[in-house]
Amino acid sequence: MSVYRDERFPAVPAASNSLRAMEAVLTDQRLCGWPADRVTVLANPSDNRQVATTIRRLAQETGDVLLFYYVGHGTLTPTGELCLILSDTDADAADLTSLEYARLRAAFRDSPARVKAAILDCCYSGRAIETLADEAALLADYTDVRGVYTLTASDLAAHVPPPDEQATACTSFTEQLLDLIRSGIPGQGDPLTLGTLYTHLRRRLRALGLPDPNQRGTDTAHSFAFTRNAAAHPFPEDDATRPLRARRSTPPPDTASPAVPEQKRPQLSRRRLLIATGTVAGATAATVATVAAINIPAWLRNAGTALPTGTGSSGPKPGATRTAGVPDYGTSLGPTMSADPDMSIYAVAAGALNGRVIAVTGDGLPHGNPPMPDDPDQGTLRVWDLVAGKQVASVKTGSRVETVALGRLRGQPIAVTGCWDAGVRLWNLNDLKQIGSTLKATEDIFAVAVGGLNGKDVAVALSRVDIRVWDMNKGTQIAAAIEMPEHYQINDMALAQVKGKTVAVVGGYDHELRLWDLDTSGEVGKALRHGKTIYGLAVSTLNGKPVAVASYGVGMRMWDLVAGKLIGTTFGSTAVSRIASGTLNGRPIVVADHVNGGIQVWDLTTRGEVGDALRSGEITALTVTAFNGVSIAVACTESTVRGWALGAS
Fold first, then answer.
1. Where is this region: Disordered (predicted)?
2. Which CATH number, 3.40.50.1820, 3.40.50.720, 3.40.50.300, 3.40.50.1460, labels domain 13-153+161-236+269-277?
């Protein structure tokens, strides 16, 4: 890799090695089988306008499969947009001199390609998942195999070998991906799909202590046949299949390559590969992930035994009020608890159960991943004792749990789960037995909530295309589904009482908040023009009025749901994707994920921070509850659960 003009982007030879190795594997006729004349390599490119023009032209010329691979520096603009660094990028003006990912998004959107995929080996690459998904509904119009598949090296810092090993090494993510392709996966089908490769790649990287990759596959794009399964068709080892670091510097004289027996391989249509290369930076970044909407019913409050008292690790925190007999802000309820490392936690709710403060989590296979033969258990609902620091019960759900809410039915505490298989399930928390049959929607469930409607106990589920309401006692759907506007993909939902009506507040990729009357199935008022993609939202009460707080790229915005007006200005200084609401010292608060890994508490009255950020790692789910008059925040990473006392509720 050549040296960048800006010395703040140091050269990393492993990036150039990754570029050459990726090209070799993709054009290997025994593996990926891409025709060499359909592979375009852009090594050390400069001039962002020229690069963007080239990419757009190639994308428009591709009608079958469009694949973009990038290895290099990644950075974020002040507004949180991903930029791919070029050799002439100025670090002080990266948004003007780099390849903004928005341009790649536009190229994907306008391409007639049947399958569209991006593989990004750079810091901040997880940001691309939300960027490409932003246009998923529009891309669906082009082809039967709809959407974009995105595979990223890390939501935080990408990893490279030590400097003294980089002369012959690839970047860690690309090396493991290519080694997996070369060696194949025993027991799997032939060919291997993108989704199958991701599952095993993720396990490899975790076992080596490397950053977790991420993926997003819409519709059936993740099922695209990417490579032959080398484990099903053993090949003689040569320089094309041997890892780069193990290759001979020069071939021995008079040595011919071993003959390869003629074998039938999958018919892979001609397609185009776009490759740009740079170096890999080593900074941390914000991440955006799927949000689970949590509804905390009143029965959860003020029950059970006492919580631990005393201060947090560094004493009382600025902005937090100390109350006698109440744990100080930031006091850990118990030790951090570890879940199944092969599954990812996507949802959490919290409350009281039989005198204990508990968290209920939902997990499953990584997002966008199809069911795998060697992973028959696709999802689990787990109950955790937050003070004792241990799991106390679990049940297999049969599908990845995307969201969970707590409530009460016929005098019994229950959990309601929304799953990837479009199923909504009710569980008795006393014995974790399913109540009744699975309630079915037509698409995977993004969010669930529990509430009351016309004297009925109802479960409300948000799917990709609609909102459905079920009578939990009868197990029947109430009225027709509330269909969302065409091309309107929703990310999150919460329930609120607005002018005496029970409404679902939803937000997503069209940059608007919308309110839907669950009784009449009609939209309430006009859409609130939020201004940016909404990844997470929560509802609360401020000065006696219902309000909604929604993510706004960097920070959050708050809306008066009665007046339909924005309250104050944007608050918060880091990217936000998950939000939960509660109270602290009698004042409304929200808890949001923090860019550096952890959570931050915000006072809605002042829109100011309360105390320091509470660190625990990259957050995948969070919630707020109250127990014995104490406000409690619970946050999860992909495989851990932790709770903190915030102070008097």
1. 228-270
2. 3.40.50.1460
